[in-house]
Each structure stands twice: as structure tokens, then as C-alpha cells.
Inverse folding.
């Protein structure tokens, strides 16, 4: 029976969450989109994760998708739920973090929840309600130039409040976190008594997250980045809610050797990673303006002319100036054009015999998984924190695919990806 039901607002974040919980020894199933039909007709795991593509869609659509996912998870028997979003709190004044939280709270009858995006490995910390990316405020980081969800305010209470259909935001500060569980518990009670049922929690370290999980595990709904889910699940295990047995490694399929990278993210780290990979691989950079004029035929021709086993990358990754120029010419259609192209190219690559894919960027991951008609993923070893390899099927064809958030990984991430996969495949 499923114990913990998780809903993620994009596909890369979902694989991040799945990889962390899998490495904690839990039985995890990752599903792309809400499955159709009754969950009792399929095998479910102790932790079920549903990956949605709802980060930047209209709020009413995001609510509809999230409630559909919640209903499916409830039908599996889950009684505790986790709403996962990016550690940089990607959203707009209209949503979708807060609007979905409100809808889920209403459906569950939850009186209060917390928001915990802290992600120490990647430098995401929260202090006095302000989100930092390494040593910069979120609003001073490259996230201020994000083409879809530019984050220009680091005060998470101010970011969240306009998104709420009801209730007020509150804060449990770092000094209060460090005073221990009793102080945190009393602060949450006081906040709720004053109508503050959407609570930002500070955190700068894993020990902070462990303390938060020990206090908040009883909440029917918790929200945050992927990292808080690990001490939360460990607390569930100590409470006897989740099993403590380790999970056997998944069966490793036989794959062809053809490989490629598709990168649509424009994060600062992704630009560095792409430039590093192009030093040792064949590459094709997509120009959105030319794509709008000519379509993908030239890119397909380039791809078909490459050795199937060669290191290769197709990317739309560009700096802020180039992104701004494309948007000035094409508007929001620029991002949609790239997503559609990446999905088309992934399908074409599969037809050419490519079976090993690394996909960078949440929107790109959504387009590719849809184009390949991926329904469910089996989690394997991580390439780096938050980016596991997964095995799945596109139709009847087994493939390996890694979905990477833009800022995750080191400079040599792409090279490292295929080295890790090669090690996994040799375990067969």
C-alpha cells in the first residue's frame, strides 16, 4: 500500500525527488502524469510520485492537474502528501506554488503547511524568510533573468502571499529553528492562531531540515524542495509509518550504445556545462529565430549525419542577452518553439537508434517525455545530487534517460553522465 504520495510541478524535480527517496532505501515509483484508471489495477509502491508539468501553466489548470493527481494518490491508500517545487521557488504572482498548495490543503482538510525550499548542496538557503542562491539573494542571482519565471524578489512571504486564495503567510526563523523542536512547535501553533497557515521555514543545513521534519511530520501536507523529503521519510520510518527495509536494485535492461544530450535550459550553470561538453562532442546550437523560419529539418539532417555512438549535443542554451533578443522577436512563442523542437528531435533520435538520453531543463524534459510517450520510470544510481539515471520504455523500446534541472551538477556533468550509465550497464 502507498504511504506517501508526492506531486511534483515538473519532471526534472520529480526525478530529483525519486532519486533521493530511492537512495534512502524506499520503494519508489515515478509516474509521468497522472495515470488513467483505478490504481488498484496496477502495482503501486510505498512512495508514489506523480510528475506534472504545471509550473508555468495557468493557475486553474495547475489546480486541476494537482487535484487529479491527489485523487489518484488517495485511491492508492496514501494519507500523507508532499508538494514538490523548485528550490529557487520558481513562480509568479499568480502561482503556481501557492495556488496549488491552497487547493491541496482544502481537499485534505489541512489547517497549516510549511514551505521549505532549502537545498544545501546546491547553495539554496533561507534566512529570515529570504532565499539565497549561494552567497547571493535570489533576486541578485541569474534567476532574475529566467525567461518564464524571473525571480526578482527574495522575500518568500512576499512572493507567496499574492498566490494564496486564503490565509496568510508566516515565518519560523533560523534562531527559532536552532532553539529546537518545542520552540518551533509553539511558533507554529501561535502562527495558526493568528491565521498564518502558510509558513515559510528558514534553513541553512541538513541538521535544520532534520529538526523541521521531526516537528512537521504529522502534517497531512508538506511542501518544499526535494531535500526536506529525505529527513521527512526517515521520520516516517522511525514512527513506523514507512517500511525500513532496503529496496532491491531495479532490473537493468539491454540498451544500444547510441547517446545524445538535449539542453533547453538557460541557467548559468547549464551554459558552463554545455560549453564544456562542446569541447569534446559534436554539437548543434538552435537559434529560435531561425527555428521559427525553417523548422527542424536542418537539425534532423545534421543529427542523421552523425555517428550514432559519438558524443553529441543539441542545445538552445544561451546567455540572457541572446534569450532577450529571441523574446523581443518571437515573444513567448520562443520557448514553445524550442520545447516542441526538442520533443520532435528526441523522437527522431529514437528512430535513428539512440537509446541513451540526457535532457537538461524542466520544460525540455516535459516536452521530451511527452514526445517519447514515457509513462513510468524505474530509478537507478545518481549522476550527481538530484539527478538519477532512470530506465523506462518508449512504446516497446527500452531506453535510459536522465532529466536534469538547469543548475544541477558540476562543469563536467554531461561527460560524467555517460560514464555513470556505462558503469550501471556493466552490472547486468
Amino acid at each position: 500500500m502507498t504511504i506517501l504520495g508526492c506531486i511534483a510541478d515538473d519532471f526534472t524535480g520529480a526525478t530529483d525527488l525519486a532519486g533521493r527517496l530511492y537512495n534512502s532505501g524506499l520503494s519508489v515509483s515515478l509516474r509521468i502524469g497522472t495515470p488513467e484508471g483505478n490504481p488498484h489495477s496496477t502495482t503501486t509502491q510505498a512512495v508514489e510520485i506523480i510528475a506534472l508539468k504545471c509550473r508555468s501553466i495557468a493557475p486553474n489548470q495547475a489546480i486541476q492537474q494537482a487535484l487529479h493527481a491527489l485523487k489518484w494518490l488517495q485511491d492508492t491508500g496514501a494519507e500523507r502528501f508532499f508538494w514538490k517545487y523548485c528550490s529557487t521557488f520558481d513562480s509568479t504572482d499568480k502561482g503556481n506554488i501557492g495556488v496549488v498548495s491552497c487547493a491541496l490543503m482544502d481537499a485534505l482538510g489541512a489547517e497549516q503547511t510549511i514551505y521549505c525550499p532549502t537545498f544545501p548542496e546546491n547553495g539554496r538557503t533561507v534566512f529570515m524568510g529570504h532565499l539565497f542562491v549561494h552567497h547571493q539573494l535570489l533576486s541578485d542571482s541569474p534567476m532574475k533573468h529566467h525567461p518564464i519565471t524571473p525571480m526578482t524578489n527574495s522575500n518568500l512571504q512576499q512572493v507567496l502571499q499574492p498566490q494564496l486564495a486564503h490565509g496568510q503567510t508566516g515565518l519560523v526563523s533560523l534562531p527559532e529553528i536552532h532553539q529546537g523542536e518545542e520552540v518551533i512547535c509553539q511558533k507554529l501553533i501561535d502562527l495558526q492562531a493568528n491565521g498564518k497557515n502558510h509558513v515559510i521555514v528558514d534553513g541553512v543545513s541538513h541538521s535544520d531540515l532534520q529538526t523541521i521534519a521531526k516537528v512537521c511530520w504529522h502534517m497531512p501536507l508538506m511542501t518544499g524542495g526535494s531535500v526536506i523529503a529525505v529527513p521527512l521519510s526517515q521520520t516516517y520510518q522511525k514512527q513506523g509509518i514507512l517500511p525500513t527495509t532496503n529496496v532491491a536494485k531495479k532490473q537493468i535492461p539491454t540498451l544500444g550504445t547510441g547517446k545524445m544530450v538535449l539542453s533547453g535550459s538557460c541557467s548559468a550553470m547549464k551554459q558552463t556545462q554545455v560549453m564544456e561538453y562542446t569541447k569534446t562532442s559534436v554539437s548543434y546550437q538552435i537559434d529560435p529565430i531561425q527555428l521559427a523560419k525553417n523548422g527542424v529539418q536542418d537539425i534532423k539532417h545534421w543529427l542523421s549525419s552523425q555517428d550514432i555512438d559519438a558524443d553529441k549535443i543539441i542545445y538552445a542554451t544561451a546567455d540572457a542577452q541572446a534569450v532577450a533578443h529571441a523574446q523581443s522577436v518571437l515573444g513567448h512563442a520562443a520557448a514553445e518553439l524550442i520545447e516542441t523542437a526538442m520533443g520532435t528531435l528526441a523522437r527522431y533520435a529514437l528512430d535513428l537508434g539512440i537509446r541513451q538520453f540526457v535532457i537538461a531543463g524542466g520544460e525540455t524534459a516535459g516536452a521530451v517525455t511527452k514526445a517519447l510517450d514515457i509513462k513510468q520510470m524505474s530509478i537507478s544510481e545518481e549522476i550527481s545530487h538530484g539527478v538519477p539515471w532512470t530506465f523506462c520504455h518508449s512504446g516497446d523500446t527500452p531506453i535510459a534517460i536522465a532529466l536534469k534541472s538547469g543548475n544541477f551538477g558540476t562543469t563536467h556533468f554531461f561527460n560524467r553522465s555517460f560514464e555513470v550509465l556505462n558503469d550501471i550497464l556493466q552490472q547486468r
User: Anything to note?
Assistant: The first strand starts at residue 4 and ends at 8. The chain has 15 helices and 18 strands. The chain has a mean pLDDT of 92. The radius of gyration is 21 Å.
